[in-house]
Amino acid sequence: MSRRRIAIVAAAAVAVLALAGCTSGGDSGGASDEPAPTFAAGTTMAKLQEAGKVTVGTKFDQPLFGLSGPSGDPEGFDVEIAKIIASELGIDEENIDWTETVSANREPFIENGQVDFVVATYTINDERKKVVSFAGPYYLAGQSILVLADNDDITSEDDLVGQPVCSVTGSTPAANLKELGAEVLETDTYSNCLEPLRSGKVVAVSTDNVILAGLAAQNEGEFKVVGEPFTEEPYGIGVKLDDTDFRMFINDVLEEAYEDGRYEEAWNSTAGAELPFVDPPAVDRY
Ligand code: GLU
C-alpha cells in the first residue's frame, strides 16, 4: 500500500469513528452525509425521516417568496425555509414534493394531510389557530397597497374606502379590506389581481408588503407600492393542530438557522434581491 493510500484509509477510519460518536445510536440512514438525526418513535419527525420524503405546501406565483422556477420547482424565501426544515429531518431537497397552496386551501390541506407542513406567506392568527398550529413566526410582514405607477391619488389605506380593490379569498388582507370599507374583488391568487389593476377594474391590489414588492419587481415600471404597512402579518409554518412536538422541532430549527447564518443566507439568495434583511422575530413557543 502506498503512503498516500495509507493516509486516505487512516483519514477515513477517523471519519467513521467521529460519525459513530455523533450519532449516539441513531441507526436509520439520513439522506445526506450528515449523521442521521434521532427522533422519538411516533413523532411526525420520525415518520417523515423514515419515509425519506416530505410534502410541502407553498405559493407558486409569488416572486421572492414562492414562485415556480424554470425546473418546475418553486423558488423563494419560503422555499428556502422549507428546505432548511427538511434537511434537519434528514431529507434532501430532491425528496421534497412541492404542492401549490393558495391562501384559501392552506388550512384544509394541512387538516386532511395533503401536505406535511405549509410555508406560504402564512399569517399566524387566532382564527387559524383553531384548526392548525403554527411554528414561528420567522418573518414579520405588513399589509400594503399596490397601484399603477402613474396613480398619485392613493397614498394610504384611507384612500381605499369605498373603492374597488383586489385581494385573495381566505387571506387576512381581504378580511382587513372589508373591515376598512373597501369594495373587495376577490380572486384565488395575487397574480390574478394584476389584470384587473391594469384594466382599471380595481384601483389597487392590497396584501402583504413583501408580496407586492415581488409583483412590482417582476413587472418593472408598471406598478408601485404606496403608503406604510398598516397591519402586522407574522409569518408562521402551518402544521397539524396540536402537533406540538413537530411545532417545537421546527421552532428549534428556526432558532438554529437564525444563529448559524442559514436564515440570513436564505433571505439574501431570494427576497434579499429586492428587500433589506431584518433580524427575525422571536419564535412563539405558545
Ligand atoms: N399573510 C396573509 C395571509 O396569510 C396574506 C398573504 C397570503 O394570502 O398568502 O393571509
Give a quick summary of the entry.
The protein is built from 9 helices and 13 strands.
Break the fold down into its secondary structure elements and pairings.
Blueprint: H1 3-23, H2 44-51, E1 54-58, E2 61-62, E3 66-68, E4 74-75, H3 77-88, E5 96-100, H4 106-111, E6 117-118, E7 132-141, E8 143-148, E9 164-168, H5 172-180, E10 183-187, H6 194-199, E11 204-208, H7 209-218, E12 223-226, E13 233-240, H8 244-260, H9 262-268
Parallel strand pairs: 1-5, 1-6, 9-10, 9-11
Antiparallel strand pairs: 2-3, 3-4, 7-13, 8-11, 8-12
Bound molecules: glutamic acid.
* Approximate strand percentage: 15-25%
In the CATH hierarchy, the third-tier topology of the largest domain is known as D-Maltodextrin-Binding Protein, domain 2
Number of helices: 9
Secondary structure class reads: alpha/beta
Mind telling me which CATH architecture of the largest domain this is? 3-Layer(aba) Sandwich
Residue share in helix: 25-40%
Describe, in plain words, how this protein is organized in 3D.
With 286 residues, the protein is α/β, with parallel strands linked by helices. It has 2 domains: 3-141 and 233-273, 3-Layer(aba) Sandwich (D-Maltodextrin-Binding Protein, domain 2), CATH 3.40.190; 143-226, Periplasmic binding protein-like II (D-Maltodextrin-Binding Protein, domain 2, 3-Layer(aba) Sandwich). Helices cover 34% and strands 22% of the residues. It contains 9 helices and 13 strands. The protein has helices spanning 3-23, 44-51, 77-88, 106-111, 172-180, 194-199, 209-218, 244-260, 262-268; strands at 54-58, 61-62, 66-68, 74-75, 96-100, 117-118, 132-141, 143-148, 164-168, 183-187, 204-208, 223-226, 233-240. Helix 3 packs across helix 8 and helix 3 (77-88) runs antiparallel to helix 9. It is elongated. The chain starts with a helix and ends in an 18-residue tail after the last helix. Mean pLDDT is 91; it is low at 1-31. The structure holds glutamic acid. Glutamic acid is lined by residues 103, 120-123, 168, 171-173, 207-208, 211, 233.
